[in-house]
Amino acid sequence: MSIPRLTETETAALIAEVPAWTLREDGKALVRSFKFKDFNAAFGFMARVALYADKADHHPEWFNVYNRVDMTLTTHDADGLSARDAAMVRAIAGYL
What we know:
The chain has 3 helices and 4 strands. It is an alpha+beta fold. Strand 1 and strand 2 form a beta hairpin. The radius of gyration is 13 Å and the shape is globular.
């Protein structure tokens, strides 16, 4: 199944909507580092995102150490950002 990649205009609009996220240098992903009060808060956030991701069948790349979660959103099947990433970043905003 081919997933359409966001156009440059759509990508720019998404970045304007979510300024806390950064477009990766290659332009194919959004990245962000989150800091929480402690490990429990970070893990709770990851659990909420994981439930959404599983339901959406779109999973973030992430790394966790204690109270920090580093996340990358991209759609490998689109070789860049897609509507799936836009939906994910909006859902994540609701979990903060």
